[in-house]
Automatic annotation (TrEMBL):
The keyword Transcription regulation does not apply. Keywords: Cell membrane, Coiled coil, Glycoprotein, Membrane, Nucleus, Signal, Transmembrane, Transmembrane helix. The lineage of its organism: Eukaryota, Metazoa, Chordata, Craniata, Vertebrata. Belongs to the ITPRIP family. Enhances Ca(2+)-mediated inhibition of inositol 1,4,5-triphosphate receptor (ITPR) Ca(2+) release. It comes from Furnarius figulus. The gene is Itprip. GO terms for molecular function: protein kinase inhibitor activity. This is Inositol 1,4,5-trisphosphate receptor-interacting protein. Residues 38-72 form a coiled coil.
């Protein structure tokens, strides 16, 4: 208790002592410094406010940085998820692409040119086929024997005469050419309808191809549309021929593909090998300022060489020789003193690698290469393999098989119709392609001679179906079922099928004219055949019946 009273007293005494009224003189300056204190307080307040703003700005920057980091992390996470999804879609797309590719190859190998069944044919055929008067077996047999069969002997004699003269002419051509500078000409080969024994319409014309090669040390480097580089659609079926030195590797160095500067030199090739004078390449029949063989230059060279060769041997023959077509390198005509004449084509070609596929510059009497992209583009011909295939298949067919007879009758009917209504987009090559497809698709026994009528109808049905679809594939290109015995180059078997009816897709007027001519031929078929058929008693023919194809 005393201690508590003491503490209270001590507190009171201290308060009294420290009261400002007891010390008036020491504290008299307080009112005088009030403004200075207030000013300092304001400055302090301003400093604190600025510090507060700085801290708030730092906090805002930290928050923005944190948000940016969170956003970046989110983007990275999303990109990872997107990449995973993209990888999944890529893998799925690759699987789908592989499945499509496998299906395409299977389609090319098995069904690349669908010949169709009877139900498909009935669904495709149009009204123009209804009520067509179709000759029966007896009428067709009589027509074939009277109009077509008798021409076989004439063709054999003409082939023998033309081949003998062509060999003599080419031998003379070699003698007048400079072996060190001119092209080297090889022996000729017969191709086409005259050598496949199905040509029916006169005048008979033999087609001979003559391979040639450049002089040493040069060689030809051939490139086709299916060799890997992309070719536009209008160049499908074509290729280019580059003239190179035999020791020149055109694929191993980029100096031949890019323009080096004037102060740059290829270390692999000397300046002599990489730069050749323009006149030297033109002497090698190349297009101006290029190394690519020019078809027009070849045509001029060949015509001049043939003229020189004929002048050397003309004294041995009692006939005249002239060019029947100036826009074809070797369209020749033999004129006898009696007034008769024989026409034949001697066409220069370039061999593709070590095969029997050839680059051909011109197609006489044909629309196959009517729209050549340029004179450096050469069309590929498979005529040698076509002849071999027909010969190979003929060995497996019954005796006197009707495949050639069908083609001859169809060619005759189409030619007669074109002479009445004008030319159409169909050619004899299209008709032969139809026969080749059916030869591969049908069993051997279906080509027995007594089935001539049925097979002729099949060819007409198949041709109409192709016209309806505007699609007729080349027989060899893209065909994986070519017999291995032919030794056909695998690069063309793996190529995309080549549609021979592509011009019908681009030119509607040509397509309409072709279809009208085809339908008109069907309607006139009976009259055209009966015109060349001897009268057959009704008991043998059972009349001429109407059939719907």
């Amino acid at each position: 208790m005393p201690v508590g009273i003491f503490r209270v007293c001590l507190l009171v005494i201290t308060a009294i002592v420290n009261h400002p009224l007891f010390f008036p003189k020491e504290n008299g300056t307080v009112p005088e410094n009030t403004e200075e204190i207030i000013q300092k307080m304001k400055e302090r307040e301003e400093t604190l406010r600025l510090e507060q703003l700085r801290l708030e700005q730092e906090i805002a920057d930290q928050e923005a940085t944190q948000k940016a980091m969170e956003k970046a992390a989110l983007v990275v996470e999303e990109s990872k998820e997107e990449k995973v999804r993209w990888d999944m879609w890529t893998a799925l797309s690759m699987v789908i692409f592989l499945l499509i590719e496998l299906w395409r190859q299977d389609f090319q190998e098995g069904n690349w040119q669908d010949v169709g069944g009877e139900e498909d044919d009935i669904a495709v055929l149009g009204k123009a086929f209804k009520g067509v008067i179709f000759p029966n077996k007896a009428v067709l047999a009589s027509f074939y024997e009277k109009r077509i069969l008798g021409t076989t002997g004439d063709m054999a004699r003409m082939r023998e005469m033309v081949e003998g003269f062509a060999d003599d002419l080419l031998e003379a051509l070699r003698s007048v050419c400079n072996r060190d500078a001119d092209m080297e000409v090889e022996d000729c080969m017969g191709v086409g309808s005259m050598y496949e024994n199905w040509r029916v319409r006169k005048p008979f014309v033999c087609d001979l191809i003559v391979p040639f090669a450049p002089p040493e040390p040069y060689c030809f480097r051939c490139q086709t549309w299916c060799s890997g580089d992309s070719f536009p659609p209008d160049e499908q079926g074509y290729g280019t021929i580059k003239v190179c030195r035999a020791d020149e590797d055109v694929t191993g160095c980029i100096c031949d593909k890019t323009k080096l500067g004037e102060d740059m030199l290829c270390l692999l090739h000397s300046q002599v090998n990489t730069t050749r004078p323009s006149s030297e390449m033109e002497d090698l029949l190349c297009f101006k300022n290029t190394q690519y063989l020019d078809a027009d230059q070849v045509m001029k060279w060949f015509q001049i060489a043939v003229t020189k060769a004929w002048n050397r041997i003309s004294h041995k023959y009692e006939f005249d020789l002239s060019f029947s077509l100036l826009d074809s390198p070797g369209a020749l005509k033999i004129k006898f003193k009696s007034g008769k004449s024989i026409a034949f084509n001697l066409t220069p070609v370039v061999q593709y690698e070590n095969s029997d596929v050839y680059f051909i510059s011109h197609f006489p009497r044909s629309s196959l290469a009517a729209d050549v992209p340029s004179s450096t583009h050469w069309f590929l011909t498979f005529a040698v393999y076509e002849r071999r295939f027909i010969h190979l298949v003929s060995k497996t067919l019954p005796a006197n098989a009707c495949h050639v007879s069908c083609l001859q009758i169809l060619s005759f009917l189409h030619g007669k119709q074109c002479s009445l209504t004008g030319p159409s987009g169909l050619t004899n090559y299209h008709l032969k392609t139809v026969m080749l497809h059916l030869l591969q698709a049908r069993p051997s026994q279906d080509w027995a001679p007594e089935k001539l009528e049925a097979r002729l109808q099949d060819m007409l049905k198949f041709l109409e179906k192709c016209l309806h679809e505007k699609k007729l594939y080349h027989f060899f290109i893209g065909n994986g079922k070519v017999p291995a015995e032919l030794g056909f180059p695998i690069i063309f078997q793996r190529a995309e099928p080549l549609n021979l009816f592509r011009p019908f897709v681009l030119r509607r007027d040509l397509y309409r004219k072709t279809v009208d001519t085809f339908h008109e031929m069907l309607r006139n078929m009976s009259a055209l055949i009966n015109e060349y058929t001897v009268h057959i008693p009704l008991a043998h023919t059972n009349g001429i019946r109407k059939e719907s194809l």
